[in-house]
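note to self — DONT lose this again. spent like an hour looking for the file last time. sequence + predicted structure for the chain T wanted, 382 res
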Amino acid sequence: MEAELQALLDQHANVQLTDGRQAVVRNGHLPERTIQTGIGDVDIEVPKVRDRSGSGIKFNSRLLPPYLKRARSVEELLPWLYLKGISTGDFQESLAALLGDQAKGLSANTISRLKSKWTEEHKLWSGRDLTDKRYVYWWADGVHSNVRMDDRLCLLVIIGVTEHGHKELVAVEDGYRESTASWDELLIGLRERGLKTSPKLVIGDGALGFWKAISKAYPSSRHQRCWVHKTANVLNKLPKSMQPKVKDDLHSIWMAPTRDEAYAAFDRTLARFSSKYPKAMECLTKDREEMLAFYDFPAEHWVHIRTTNPIESTFATVRLRTKRTRNCGSRDTTLAMVYKLLESAQKRWKRIKGFNLLTLVVNNVKFKDGEQVTDQSDRNAA
């Protein structure tokens, strides 16, 4: 509404009284009212303007018309349309098809002002103080896209789990592919802003750039390779006729109830397929120990920490598939739009299962095959 109001004031900025004063000015707010939104009830005060020229100019918000009780949220629609290649000038028509006549007041100036506002929000968020933050687990990934850019945009994304089990967006920045230098810059920035404590476990794919950077910035963190990425990489080196069989064998590894049984399933898979498909099996054995790090953490958490699914599932709806368009946007604007979509998605993220066990992980309690390890002295006492 503030963006709409400012657009109206700018439109009539040249209208002045005989004494040179501005004719159309702010004039307080209407009485507060409650609007039902996607994040719950919100108390709203709609701003007013005063037309001292007597021309009858009034401010009416198209997003929140009089008597409206339920907001039509454009928080997700605008970034989504932008990333799909819709130009700013076409937003009114696109939004009108989705929101109806209420969208007609969203002028190009209003949209541009909102985009600028969101870009600034992302910059402020990217520089926020992290001194009081602590994350037990991290998921990290580089998400590639061609959207609205002359060069491929690689979004470097980190999502973390707090000590209380809540998932939070830790970082979303652009980088050059998934290079060590790009990840170095991101991770050093997190440390400089106060995030000193290493996460206990970091989950990611096999991109070497990230793992080299994390080993320097947070050397005590354990590494877990994502089984979804690993499975895809292995299957890509196989003929299609063999992929279902090998996929079943891979499933038997990461679903094994103990590390020893996982090792046995590993060996069986290698014995079956190494002679005919050596490149695929080399890919599988490359990160053998890092593939099984999850066995040293609570079994209740395995469903969360074996893959980078929190990032993958979030980007399933944000996935940037559109090919380049003529009116390519800036990197900052595209990044800000993705940030707004992730920020909105974050409101729907649920706590991880077994979050009460995170206290034990933070306090370095040992786990074996997902079960807490009890000291021999404790067993004798029992």
